[in-house]
Structure formats: C-alpha cells, structure tokens
Write a structure and sequence with these properties.
Number of strands: 27
Strand order of the largest sheet: 10-14-15-22-19-18-16-17
Radius of gyration: 29 Å
CATH architecture of the largest domain: 2-Layer Sandwich
Structural class: alpha+beta
Length: about 575
RNA sequence: GCCGACGUAGCUCAGGGGUAGAGCGGCGGUUUUGUAAACCGCGGGUCGGGGGUUCAAAUCCCUCCGUCGGCUCCA
C-alpha cells in the first residue's frame, strides 16, 4: 500500500516470465556466490519478482550489477526450463544433501498428497510448482532493483532473509517504460515535493512520525477542511470536538485496550488515574451520544469531527505523510436505527464519491469486506448489514469487489480505493458498520413503541486522514495543485521598480476578491522570478511592465506557459470561475 | 521492532586519520531588467548525539537517535 504501484492491468504472461526470472536470479546468485547460499522462495509479484536468500556475508549493493549481468548471460544462453515430477523422499534427500533448511521447510509445509515437481534451468534446479516461460530467452529484459530484509514467511519470529527485488519484461523497451514509470513516481514523491514546496516537515528533535504543517501546507489543509465542512453541513452532520486524552476506563469499555493496545501510546498517570491519548475518535462521540437519553426522533445523529489521533507505529514503518504516528481524520459517527442503516449508508457513499471526484479521483473501486472468523454478533445481523452495503453500492451504480472475511470484528465495511494520475491505487475512504460498540457502551434509543433499542453505528472517514490524503494528493498532482487548492494561486510580478506600486494594488485587489495572491517585489530579473514561481508550481503569474501599467492591464502567464494580456477584471472573473468549478 | 544502506551549511552534494569545501538559497551592494538562473561582496557547520582508539577523528571502533529500501498491519 505504501509505494507499490499495484498495477493490475499487466498481461498475465508476465507472471510466468517473472517467475522464470526469479529462478534465473537464484541461478546467477549460486553461480557467483556458491552453493552454500541458502535459498528460500522466489515468486513473481505484480510489478516484478524477488528471491529470498541467506548469504554470509550479506549482499551489498555492488553485488546487484554483477548478479544482473550474470542473469543477462543466462538469458542470452537461451536455456530451456524443464519441469519434472519428483517424489517426496527424493526431494527431501536432495535438499538435505545440499543443506537447504528453507527448502526443507517448504517441503514439510506441502500437503502429503500434493504432487511435487522440480524445475531446472541451466544448471539450477529448484523445487517449484511451475508456471514458467519456455526458455530463459523469453525473459527478455531484467533489472535488479534493490536488496531488502524480509522475515522467513513474513513472520518476525523467523530468521531474517535477504531479499533481492527485480523486474522483468519481454523486451527492453517495455522494461525501459517501466523504469521510466518508477522514475516518474520518484519525481512525484511527496516527501521531496513537500520539501521543495515548503508544505510540512518532520523534526527529529520532536519525534518521528509527527507532522508540522508549514504555512503553505496549512493553507492547503484549511481549504480542504473548509470544503469538507461545507459538505458536512449540507448533509446534516453536527460538528463536535472531543478531548485528545480520555480516562483509560473508556478504552476498556470500548475494547480498544483489548484489541488495539499495540496501536496505542502508553498511559499517563494523573492524580492516581490513568489516561490514554486517543487512537480513535469513536469513544468520544459515543460519550456524546450517551450524554442524554435518545429518542428515535433524534436519529440519525451524525457527529463529525476532524479528530486528531495518535497511534503507535513501529519506527521502521513510518513513511512521510503516508504512515505517521499522529494524524487527523475527517471522522464521523452516525447513530441510527436499524431501518436507517440502508439510506445512511447510501448517502455516506454518495458523499464520499462526490468528495473524491472534487479532488479529481475519478477512477474509484469499491470493496466490501464481510464477516471475519472472529466477528462478534449473530450471523443474521451481519448478513443484513452486508446486504445493506451491497445495495448501497448498486444504488451508486458502481461495481464492487468482495473481500471475504476482511471485515472488522465489529462489523462489515466498505473501502473505497482510488487510482491516482499514474495508476497507483490508494485506500482513502472507509465506511464501517458497527453493532459492537453501541452494545459495549450500552447505547439505546427509545423507539416509537416506547421501548429501548440499541442503535447501529456507522464509522466513516472520507479523505481518511489529512496527512495521508495530502501525501496522496501531492503525488496525484505532482505538486501542481489545481487552482482552488494551490497555496499560492497568483503571484504578481512587476518587471522593474517603477511598476511595484501598480503591482501592489493588483495584488490587493486579488486578495480582496478572496484569492491567495502574493507580490514578488524582489530585486531579481523577470526570468528569475518566473523560474522561481514556476518551480513553486504557482497556477498564475501576472507580469506587469511598462505597457501593462500604461494600458491598465495584466499579462497573465499560466502554469503551462501560455500568456495573455487582459484587464484585471477579466482575470478575476476567470479565476473565480476556475475556483468555483474546482477545475 | 528486525535486516541492510545512509546522516557533512537552510537545500543538493563533494571530501574518508593531519587547520571543514562547492553550487543554490540567505544577507549587503551594483544593476531597473519583458516570460525558466544578472554581477560583485559577506556571512553561515561542536561533519546526527554520546563514548572509545590515536600525538591527532568528519574520517576508524562501540552505542544511541533519525532517514531511506523492505518484512507485518492499518488512515
């Protein structure tokens, strides 16, 4: 999720091709470093392949080119891939002789009745289920990308292996295209762009995973917050604010201390009472619900909050804005009657889609997660809720995938993933049905029958967390935000000192019209100023020289480099239209 | 957290036992400029923190912190 482009529209033949490439990687490693390198597994992935090894001493980055060129020799040698059935005792003997503990481990993990096979290419034989291209020559073009640590079978209690990642394509041209795609992704890296555009920082002395929003990032966030607040008002949400820390008992009641303790920061002791910084906003909103008796007439009650939460994430997993320890969710909790679940879910989905569209995420995919094994509550309730989600998706007219057993322990959920400008998929919105928390907190409403009933809760975030959302937005737009979002929308650029006064009044008029406009009265040449603001990806520059002052006009240079002289009024109108259309 | 790499000026980076460097940015000046880098000058760093080896450490060793690539999970 963090960075893998997860491009699923690759032709299927790439799988076998890359699987074969993984065998060639192991072949090359054994050729260069000898048979005492321990071999683990080497599958194809969505974007390439890897192979896990244990080598003493470990691989160093300089090894990659050597291994890669050995692989190229193997490809050029046009080696046939041959598969052969093998019986279990022979396979065990084979790997016992060669002292390959991981291969033996794999063998032990395969069901006794399953047939085994060994695949040989060149001088390298590997236990393998198959799924290969015919010859090493079919692999075409390979590139080794990185070395990384990985636990055996992904479990941190197991030994650490060294993983070599690579990718392969039928032709050099396709490989080059892919590498270019990677380079493009790197150019869009939000950590880099955010530094260049001065949006946020993380300060070593303040702690990792904690975000400082600089003025320009803050403007961006404020614009988005205002936009979302408008949406919330329109859709009947109430804004609430809840404390950042709550008594530990609340998290006992909610169950967070049982099921989410690993994600929480430790307790603070105050006057003999233990407090916790909140990792989620739901308990606070529930307490507001609980603060008075509720009637069915009060429902649905929609409580929203840009709630800042803190979660303990292991240091090695932190990543710019995408994975942090403190973040603010555009959170809301809807308390409704069982009958209201369906329409509330529909309108929540509708608002999520319209918001994502506003940010030019038009390629969205829906995923319904159903009951996991550890799901609480009765089967029937789950079924009905899942059905409500399904109907909401159909109502929205969008196809959806099903993630069987992917729900939370308290209810089924709908995740919305979007595809960004260069095809990467990100999960932003999630809408979750919850029967458990209302029960744990003993929530109730009085029905028309005069009897108390438990409400159903919907947890939902639409942009998710502002931090992550901005990470995604920055990369989606490559830092060139549409005008309605841009921290600086217009820079007024006088050519020489004589025009500063006029330029200043232009800037003032723009500010008064509600735009984020700045004046560049620095003592630099025009070219330099243009370069600076172009690098800052400002949507518009208004160049003002002698002739503009004389004509009472502005010369508009757009981010794309187009120029056009026009009266300021005309520009203001154009800009206003662009902003209100969120173009 | 673990494996590996990395950490030198605000930024991007060079230097790898013998007195800390460049470009850009910043500051001061000259220039008054027409659509992506004018010119001259000046500052600026306990080389991530701490400890050790050495006559001498940015450089070698240990340790801690942080960053990056991954492993698991999530907003």
């Amino acid at each position: 999720m963090l960075k893998n482009p997860a491009v699923n529209d690759q032709p299927l033949e790439l799988g076998p091709l890359r699987h074969t490439a993984a065998h060639l990687l192991a072949h090359a490693v054994v050729d260069l470093f000898g048979e005492d390198v321990k071999l683990a597994i080497g599958p194809a992935t969505e974007t390439g392949f890897y192979y896990d090894f244990v080598k003493e001493p470990p691989f160093v980055p300089d090894d990659l080119p050597r291994v890669e060129s050995r692989m190229r020799e193997l490809i050029a040698a046009d080696l046939r891939m041959r598969g052969e059935a093998i019986d279990r005792p022979s396979a065990e003997a084979y790997y016992r002789d060669r002292q390959q503990p991981f291969k033996l481990d794999i063998l032990y993990g395969i069901a006794p009745d399953e047939p085994l096979s060994m695949y040989t290419i060149g001088t390298f034989t590997d236990l393998c289920r198959g799924g290969h291209v015919r010859s090493s020559a079919d692999v075409g073009a390979v590139k080794l990308l990185s070395i990384a640590g990985a636990y055996w079978r992904g479990d941190e209690r197991n030994p650490m292996l060294q993983r070599i990642y690579g990718t392969a394509f039928p032709s050099q041209a396709e490989l080059d295209a892919h590498l270019q795609h990677l380079a493009e992704a790197e150019k869009r890296d939000h950590r880099r762009l955010a530094k260049e555009l001065d949006l946020y920082s993380i300060q070593e002395e303040a702690g990792p995973g904690l975000i400082f929003w600089h003025p320009k990032g803050g403007r961006l966030r404020a614009v988005v917050e205002d936009f979302l607040r408008g949406e919330l008002r329109r859709r009947g949400y109430e804004a609430v604010y809840t404390p950042h820390m709550l008594h530990e008992d609340v998290f006992n009641t909610s169950g967070h201390l049982q099921s989410f303790a690993d994600g929480m920061f430790g307790p603070m002791e105050v006057e003999n009472q233990r407090y916790r910084v909140k990792p989620m906003n739901c308990p606070g909103h529930i307490l507001i619900y609980k603060s008075q008796p509720r009637s069915y007439r009060d429902l649905p009650l929609r409580l929203s909050e840009f709630g800042t939460v803190y979660r303990f994430e292991r240091s090695g997993t932190l990543h710019g804005l995408l994975r942090v320890r403190g973040f603010t969710q555009d959170d809301a909790h809807l308390f409704c009657t069982p009958d209201q679940l369906q329409p509330e879910f529909e309108s929540t989905l509708d608002s999520a889609l319209s918001i994502l569209r506003a940010f030019q995420f038009t390629d969205v995919r829906l995923y319904i997660s159903t009951r996991p094994d550890e799901g609480l509550g009765d089967e029937d309730t789950w079924k009905r809720a899942t059905e409500a989600i399904r109907r909401a998706c159909e109502h929205a007219g969008l196809p959806y995938g099903i993630d069987e057993g992917g729900g939370t322990f308290y209810g089924p959920k709908l995740d919305i993933k979007v595809r960004d400008a260069i095809g990467r998929e990100w999960q932003l919105s999630t809408v979750q049905v919850d029967y458990v928390l209302p029960e744990r907190f003993g929530l109730a409403f009085t029905g028309p029958d005069g009897v108390e009933h438990p409400p159903v809760m919907i947890h939902r975030v639409l942009v998710g967390s502002f931090e992550r959302f901005f990470g995604v937005l920055i990369e989606h737009f490559a830092g060139a935000f549409p005008t309605w979002l841009a921290p600086v929308q217009v820079v007024v650029v006088p050519i020489a000192e004589d025009q500063i006064a006029f330029a200043r009044s232009v800037r003032e008029q723009l500010s008064e019209a509600g735009f984020r406009a700045e004046l560049d009265d620095s003592n630099e040449r025009l070219q330099k100023k243009i370069r600076n603001h172009q690098l800052q990806k400002v949507p518009y520059m208004l160049v003002i020289g002698k002739s503009e002052v004389q004509a009472g006009q502005v010369n508009v240079r757009s981010r794309s480099g187009e120029q056009r002289a026009m009266p300021l009024d005309a520009f203001v109108q154009q800009l206003g239209r662009e902003v209100s259309e969120r173009a």
